[in-house]
Structures are given as structure tokens and as C-alpha cells.
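Quick sanity check, ANTAR domain-containing protein:
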Amino acid sequence: MIGPDEQTDQEQVKALQDEVDQLRQALVSRALVDQAIGVVITVGGLRREQGWEVLKHISQHTNVKLREVARCLVEWPVRRRLPEVIRRALPAAMKHARARSGAEADACEREPEVSCGRPG
């Protein structure tokens, strides 16, 4: 029979194993997202932060999880095709990212020390 201390220890070990598994999955997802951003900025001639905006925009407007959007975009150069929903959302997402960056650039010119964190 397992004593109370041993059961608590087993529960703690299980909780730590679960946490390690979640952290490993997060690292894999992060790498996948970074690769997808690279694909988007290469295809669209965007900056890194715009690439991130594109991924978020596609995910939010297609109801597809961000890591799935990232996976599809990373596989796109090899497979030479995107799922229809992502293919249709990509141009609008790029346009949105460019427009958003343009608005931020305009704000930087008006109020550089507040909007951009530039020294005054």
C-alpha cells in the first residue's frame, strides 16, 4: 500500500512531468511559428513584426489555431499548396499588417518619444 507521503511525491512527479511535456511542446510550437514568420516575410517582403501580425490575423479570421497556420505555412514551399482557407486569408492578412505598420510609422513621426520609445 502507498503511504500518504509517497502518493504526494508521485503526484508531484506527475505534475512536473506534465509541465516538462508542456514546455517541450511550447518550444516546438515557438520554433514552428518562427519558421512560418520567415516564410511570410520572405514571400511578402515584410518585417518580422509584420510577419507575426500576418500569422495572428490569419488565425483570428479563419478560426484556425496559430500553430496549425504556422505548420501549413512552413510546409507550403515543399507541398506547393496551402489549405484554401489560409490561401484566401493570406493576402488580406498581409495588407492588414502593412496598413497597421504604416499607421504605427505615422504615429512615430507625430510623437516619436511616446509611440516608438525613441529618445526625445
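Posting the structure with no commentary besides this: Residues 14-115 form one domain.
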